[in-house]
Amino acid sequence: MKHLNISLKEEEGAVLVVCVLMMAILSLLGTAAIQSTVIDTKISKNYKDSVQALYAAESGVEVVLDAFHAGATTDLDGLNGADFEWVWQSAGDIGSDAARITVNSGLPTQAYIYVDGSQALDAPAFVTIYSLGNPDGTLARREIVQTFTTSAQNIINGAINNSP
After folding, report:
1. Which class for 143: exposed (0-12), middle (13-18), buried (19 or more C-beta within 10 A)?
2. Can you tell me the distance from the alpha carbon of 83 to that of 76, in angstroms, rounded to the nearest whole number?
3. What angle do CA 53, 58, 60 make, to 5 degrees?
4. What is the pLDDT of residue 39?
5. Among 64, 99, 104, 108, which has the highest number of CB atoms less than 10 A from its own CB?
6. How far does the chain reach from its first CA to its final CA, in angstroms?
């Protein structure tokens, strides 16, 4: 019997050590799961902001194209009068790369546009639209550059059809 009591006394506290080790392992697994969830949430938010910025930039391009289709009566920047005439007849720019014009591309986003009309008088006429989308409250930015061409006859027809 004496031998049995000695072996039991030597194992006192072993269960405590095993329990502490198990708790430490479970704590590490829990911390890793929480960190993984936080990282996944940040990735999802960044993706959502990036997609919103892309849509805002696309919307900015559409605003400019709609303005050109509206003809001589549209003024995007509030400076040049009719932007249609300014770009297509004077080869003028709307805004600049450093000072882009803010257009509403749907709440809560905006697009910053710049229209390069320097080749609008060439044959065929080239106009390049730069649109930088930026959702409010985010650092996400996406830029779309779209160049389109047209002929002088299409410009004249557009001016005639859209004149007041």
Report:
1. middle
2. 7
3. 95
4. 97
5. 64
6. 114
